[in-house]
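Researcher: Here's the sequence for the chain we discussed earlier.
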Amino acid sequence: MPAPNLFRMPHVSIVGLGPSDAALLTIGALERLKSVPVVYTCNAAPATLSYLRDAGVDAKAVPFDASALLRGVDSAVVAAVELLGAGDAALGVPGHPLLDVPGLPHLLRALATARIEVTIVPGVPRAALSAAAMSPLVALPPVAIHHTWEELVEIMARLRVCCPWDREQTHATLLPYLVEEAHEVVEAVDEGDAEKLRDELGDLLLQIVFHAQIACEQGRFTVADVIDALANKMIRRHPHVFGDASISTTQEQMKSWELIKTQEAGIRHRESLLDGIPKTMPSLLQSQRMQEKAGTVGFDWPQAHDVLVKLDEELEELRRAITIRDAESMRDELGDLLFTIVNVARRYGVDAEAALRQANVKFRRRFATMERIAGGGATALANRSLDDLDALWQRAKEHEAGQVS
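Model: Thanks. This is the structure I predict for it:
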């Protein structure tokens, strides 16, 4: 009988576990995992781990950051070499090692330097974004890691598979959250809070990824299609940046933008230039967008001052409607007045929606100051005379101006 080779180096099998579904684990991969004394895994799905253990494979997760190893982070590679160099072992990785582990070259070089033999055992590959719909693989890594876009997509896919609430959502049920998150982004911008804006933009991005994931599961489009459509649109609508067109002013760009839109296949069927403005938009914002679009075809006041003259006319017509106590006329004339005020804002470069939002914030702040001065509480101003309330309002303004401590 030949003497044992006391100097034989360890042998490591890097085994593809496929895209999380145990049914897609290959026979070759399973046999190799059964044949080695020690098996470690990187980001294996719980269902896959359960299947391996039922099959007699004592698989353990690597005792360090698996996501960092899959990326090829030096510290994780060093830890893996130290772990795998103790004796014959297998390392299970998501998908196919050669296709789905970007850090594999770093690991192979380190293992070769340590004189550790390696065998690659293929697995069913992950098909990037489209496979994520049925095969989410990446577990939630530690907070300190900078996650990738692909990980975010796969995290969302896993939520759709594993979380009951996420699984039940539809495009329709998510709409209130989409609107809410958009408003919270606006609030963060108004408050000038960068940290809050970062978090709220993330929440809004989640809604986009969520909708794209649902569409992907239904076979309609993927988040990759969303990105492609957006990138193509930006390139197409900015010929002065990505082509040889000459555009030097904001007004020229707006006109060019609208002209290019009318030539696009998805918009050519529209009967009106205004059809692209959602009817569910806030009324002030909708008014401003309609006026901007009308202005791109020349339907606008020649001078900004002309709008102020029109504002005086609309105010006088409202006064006449009030004088005769005609409710329907008052409503019509008040609408015309508001529409003209939006036109004034637009012509002087003011966002009407933001201006009113700022006025609301100012009123809320001053009213709360009045309540504090009056003793605090929601009923602090109840049963006070108008003169008292006016005096409290003036004191609140003085507090705001720093005239009163």
